[in-house]
Amino acid sequence: MEDDELRQAMAALETYNAQLEALSRQVRLLQISLEDTVRARESFKALSGAEEGDEILIPVGASSFIPAKVTGKKKAIVGIGSRLSAEKDLDEAIAFMETNGNEISETLRTAMKTLGEMEKITTDLTMAIQNEYRNRQLLEEQ
User: Fold this and answer.
1) Cα distance between residue 17 and residue 2, in whole Å
2) pLDDT of 25-80, one tens digit each?
3) Structure letter (DSSP) for residue 5
C-alpha cells in the first residue's frame, strides 16, 4: 500500500467511524421511540377494556405509573408528528400506534442491518491499516 493509499484508507476509516456513531445514535432513538409506541398502545388497550370508574395505571415514563379512574369518555390525544396531536377514539389510537410501531420496527431493522454492514467494513479496513503498519515496521527493522 502506498503512502497516499494509506492516508486515504485512514481518512475513510475516520469517516466510517463517524457514520457508525451517528447510526448508533439513530438506532438508540428508534428503540426508544418503539418502546414509547408500544407503551402507549398498551395503555390505550388497558383503557379501552376498562369500565367507567375502574382504576388503571397509566405509564408516565422511567418505569413509573400513576393511578387514574376511567371516565366515560373513551378518547385519546395522540401525537401524529411534527409536534402535532389529534384526538382519536381509542380503537383509532390503538390502530395508529400499531401502524406507527410497525413503521418504526421496519426502520429499526434497516438501520441495524446497515450498522452491521458498516461495522464489518470498518473492522476490515482497520485490520488492513494495522497490517500495513505492521508490514512497514518489519521492513524498517530489516
Assistant:
1) 22
2) 999 999 999 999 999 999 899 899 899 999 988 888 888 999 999 988 889 999 98
3) H
Q: What CA–CA distance (Å, rounded) separates 137 from 142?
A: 9
DSSP string, 18-44: HHHHHHHHHHHHHHHHHHHHHHHHHHH
Q: pLDDT of 86-110, one tens digit each?
A: 999 999 999 999 999 999 999 999 9
Please report the pLDDT score of residue 61 as a whole number: 81
CATH class of domain segment(s) 3-137: mainly alpha
Q: Please say whether the beta carbons of 45 and 98 come within 8 A.
A: no
- C-alpha–C-alpha distance, residues 24 and 8, integer Å: 24
In this structure, the number of other CB atoms found within 10 A of the CB of residue 93 comes to 24
Query: What is the secondary structure of 66-113 as a DSSP string?
Result: EEEE--S--EEEEEEETTEEEEEEHHHHHHHHHHHHHHHHHHHHHHHH
Domain chopping of the chain, boundaries: 3-137
- Kindly report the pTM of this predicted structure: 0.81
